[in-house]
Amino acid sequence: MRKPDLFFLAVILFISAALRVWAPWGDVFPSTALGASGATRINFLETDAWYHVRLVENQVRNFPHHITVDPYAAPDGQFVAVAPLFDAAIATVVFVTRGPSAPTAYIERVAALAPPIMGVLAVAAVWALATIAFDRRANLIAAFLAAVLPGHFLDRTLVGFVDHHALEVLLSFATLAALAWLVRSPGAWSPTAAGVCLGLYLLAWSSGAFLVAILTGWIVVSAFVGEQKTVVATARGVALAAIVALALVLLLQNPAMFRYNTQIASLVGLLSASAIVALVSERKVFRSASSVSSAALLSLSVASAALLVAAYVWAPDLVRQVTSDLSRFRPDPTRMAVLEARPLFLYTGNWDWLQPWTFFRSGFYIGALALIALAFTIWRSRRLDHLLIVIFTAAAFIATIGQNRFGYYLVPATAVVIGWLSVRVLDWGGVPHAGNPMPNVRVVMPLQREVAVILVAGLAIAPNLVPAALTTTRAGGMADYWANAMEWLRASTPPPFGSDALYNARYGDTNPAASYTVMNWWDQGYWIVQAGHRVPVSNPTQVRAPNAAAFYTATDEAAALAMLSAERARYVLVDWELPFRQAGAGALGGRFQNLADWAGIPTSRFYSLCYTQASEGDPWQPIWLFHEPYYQSMVYRLMVAGGGPVVPANSTYVVTVRDRTDSTGRQFCEVAGRQVFANADAAKAAAEKSGAGARVVGLSPWQPAFPVPPITGLRIAQEFRESGQKPNETPMVRIFEVVK
Fold it and tell me: Per residue in 519-528, pLDDT tens?
């Protein structure tokens, strides 16, 4: 390797680190005191980060033991479905540097710094892959693009984003680089390196069968694309890598971990496919590549059919798990509440062709073009390392379109193929480089060299720089008022296990049940565990989300209190985002629809969307109609009304509704007229006289439209406001306590 290349790589890695640390540093490590105690805190990004910190701290205190069943995670405890490697790596660094008694602040700081470090190493892995598969120019361009392209990879490798995604990307691209090395230089070390990287990848992500399935597809397609000698050597090497990875998983992975069976099955499938491809391709009886390919296809088809039949007969749970995992790519109302699980083009809730530009800028489009171009060259080159890159990148595109979260694989993958395409464009333009300082190219247009540079710099690089910088500027995950609420829970409520000492205890497979829990929506579950040291009813695994949703949407207090009793809930958290709120331009904000979806209640019970015109010929404007059950729901009565009685005045409407059909044949609801009444009884009497088409509704999600009695089974324990809020303004968070 040339020394200037090392210098350029060092600069790229420095830029990568600076982007991931500089801008968000002040949000993650605020210099001012936060919380009621006046102590500073580390403000991790996103919800899962808080639970990873919880797991890391407990492992440090009980090193090397890690939590398998967490009594704090749910009312009856919950198995920790997180693969162990990410948390174990951070815990090991803390334990080695400061021991089991390391201060919590030190543990949190190390955890916050882990994602950008892993992100920088992932950029280095991208450079290594492009170096092996392409050349020294493509590798530097690919590394630079991986460092600066906006999107999910940059976002998930920011300081404070304590999640396993950064480690996933690092190990997946390390695996790809090792496999490319295996293709180019078969030997004893390359299969071992690939197997170790793949095994560690599976230890970092429970759903790691995703990558194994891609590699299986690659080795199968290799039998039809590559030259016979190369295919045999590659298939043998991949089979050995699968054995090494399988050994690591069998030795180090907890068999009770969620999707453990799919990890084992995927590795067995990769091993089987590789062995079949190697055996069939090396047989001397086949005189042509086509006969080898036909034999490989027949053998793989028979083996696949046999494995499927065996799975259906002897491993039905595995079949159900795989089917369930594949169904996650189908849009679902409850899944749409998780932003990262939304399909790419439905991220906003409506189909948006420009969403890839919003997330990934030109990297998405240039990457797709580069992918197609590289795929076409494979028919001539027969390069299996190029085929690996094409198949992985294509899978990343498909996965990201299905669930936008997979963008953290897509961004570095497109960086690799764009690096290759950029070199092709520069060569076409005759741009000199160290390997060819005086290129001799056929000129087909004026200023050809300048055009080539502009295409690479102006399309592949420049459009992404400012958005990338803006991506790194983001607020922390927990607002101050939530931090105050968590601090109050921790300091002012009794320990759920009799003593706070259990929080960092070493747990077994069975643990004591919490004496009480906190009713909450799942978004804040991990905050309650890590910052509040209390037991939430629901958490971001969403296992008990239907239970919480049923409580918050309940319209009968007695039924709601019975639900609290069933969950052993002593406290109830509500915040300003749970009810609906006007969001401007006719849109609604808030999470109430998500509550109804998780509770399995048709949203038409609570509200309707209609349209109205100021006068004939004017544009149609949306108008939201809120029905009486919405104002009777526990979330409205607790958050908006504060648990008190609701007596509306001049806010109840009678609207006249009729069905209409637009020019495209779609039906919609029109509000043809409306009249306000002093109270709900007068409105109901008027609606009864008006007959069909008249509905009694409210037009504001916060202003009451129907009378509701006070809540008698709950009392306000504490309220938390945003800095600068007036005492008479509705607080941001309310905590209620069950009245004994």
Answer: 999 999 999 9
